[in-house]
Design brief:
With 409 residues, the protein is of the alpha/beta class. It has three domains: 157 residues, Alpha/beta knot (3-Layer(aba) Sandwich); 52 residues, no CATH class; 166 residues, CinA-like (Maf protein, Alpha-Beta Complex), CATH 3.90.950. It is 38% helix and 17% strand. The protein has 14 helices and 13 strands. The strands form four sheets. Strands 2-1-6-5-7 form a five-stranded parallel β-sheet, sandwiched between helices. Helix 9 packs parallel to helix 14. The relative contact order is 0.08.
């Protein structure tokens, strides 16, 4: 497969071409990747490729002449041209399968404030990698090339792509590796049974359950493959979906209240805290109030950002005191008005931690009103996701109570 990329930043593709998948594809002749510098087609000693927009406005626009001249130089009757831009159709796995069958694909990378609109009619289609804005089309071009090379026969083991997320209209089932037991978390017994038929059935059911829980929209647009998987698997309990919907509604209320009152919040990293943060970001405008503590998984990074080392050392000690220390450190380190700390186990005790008790979760909220903390007892839950959801639900109640109290005025 031949792929030609038109860009004003060819240097961005140096490291990309050295990544294992792309390097192997090029070395084996499966991929012929050509990077074309649009500046080579700009006239004058300064090779100017951009200019200010007619009608005024901030930023610069890529000019027609150099882009279209570069496109004309590489395009043939057999080539298919795609402009990567926010106005395009959202790129999907089905698009990847379609494009992987082409002999020659041309990707045009926008930059600055975008392309002169007269360039768009020269493309066969417009694609976007998501509803957000990037500096240029170079990263989306890499996304497209990487996704295509995974599908080109011979680039990787074919069976590796068959059950990935989106291939059957569903998210992929959970995967595990050694050790079988780690810090209170056990690999499902069925995966250790050696019963491949039962394992395959479990995976189908898990793929459906996770899709219905996390991405129900996929089921609405999925094809026959997802429908077959749905009929073959047990239905995800309606109560579980209802609970998720109710928790999401609580967090939308919390986030909207925080935004209205300009109250910032941050969560100390943990599996449950990550879910809390994702629920908080489920509402438009959340970036104005949510601080980024929950994405910091490296202890060294936490220390550099101001989390005291003694708090990190106590992170594995499950207690109210630890949760409170996490909430205080989180609030202080990330300059948030509300800090959240969560620690504990789900349904299993951690044999390496003498303080662990099955199903005990400790929640703490630090604010101007002081510290609120409590212990949450979880009965045996079918999986960690359900347990995290219950912890997030309990914390939502605490946050709502806090917002009705000292922040009511």
């Amino acid at each position: 497969m031949k792929i030609t990329i038109l860009t004003i930043c060819p240097e961005q593709f140096g490291d990309f071409r050295r990544t294992p998948l792309i390097a192997r594809a090029e070395d084996s002749g499966l991929l012929e990747l050509k990077i074309v510098d649009i500046r080579d087609y700009a006239p004058g000693s300064f090779r100017q490729v951009d200019d200010s927009p007619y009608g005024g406005g901030a930023g610069m626009i890529l000019r027609c002449q150099p882009v279209l001249d570069a496109l004309d130089a590489v395009r043939t009757e057999a080539s298919h041209t795609i402009i990567l831009a926010p106005v395009g159709k959202t790129y999907t796995q089905s698009d990847a399968h379609r494009l992987a069958q082409l002999n020659h694909l041309i990707l045009v990378c926008g930059h600055y404030e975008g392309l002169d609109a007269r360039i768009y009619p020269s493309a066969d289609e417009l694609l976007s990698v998501g509803d957000y804005v990037l500096t240029g089309g170079e990263l989306p071009a890499m996304v497209v090339v990487d996704s295509l090379m995974r599908l080109v026969k011979g680039s990787m083991k074919e069976e590796s792509t068959l059950e990935e997320s989106f291939e059957q209209g569903l998210l992929e089932y959970p995967q595990y590796t050694r050790p079988a037991y780690f810090k209170g978390m056990k690999v499902p017994e069925i995966l250790l049974s050696g019963n491949h038929e039962a394992i395959a059935d479990w995976r189908r059911k898990e793929a459906l359950r996770i899709t219905k829980l996390l991405r129900p929209d996929l089921l609405e647009t999925a094809g026959d493959a997802a429908a077959t998987a749905a009929s073959a698997a047990d239905r995800c309990p309606e109560s579980e979906l209802a609970e998720l919907s109710a928790v999401r509604a609580k967090y939308r209320t919390i986030t909207k209240t925080l935004i209205e009152r300009s109250i910032s919040i941050s969560t100390m990293e943990s599996c449950s805290a990550g879910l809390v943060a994702s629920l908080l970001t489920d509402t438009e405008g959340s970036s104005s109030i949510l601080k980024g503590a929950f994405v910091t998984y490296c202890n060294e990074a936490k220390i550099m950002q101001g989390v005291p080392p003694e708090v990190i050392r106590r992170y594995g000690v499950y207690s109210l005191e630890t949760a409170e220390e996490m909430a205080l450190a989180c609030r202080s380190a990330y300059n948030a008005q509300i800090g959240v700390g969560i620690t504990g186990t789900m349904a299993n005790a951690d044999p390496e931690n003498q303080d662990s008790v099955p199903g005990e979760i400790y929640l703490a909220i630090a604010s101007d009103a002081g510290i609120r903390s409590r212990k949450l007892i979880l009965p045996s839950v079918p999986d960690r996701l359900t347990g995290k959801l219950k912890a997030a639900d309990a914390l939502a109640d605490d946050l709502l109570a806090l917002l009705k109290d000292p922040y009511s005025s």
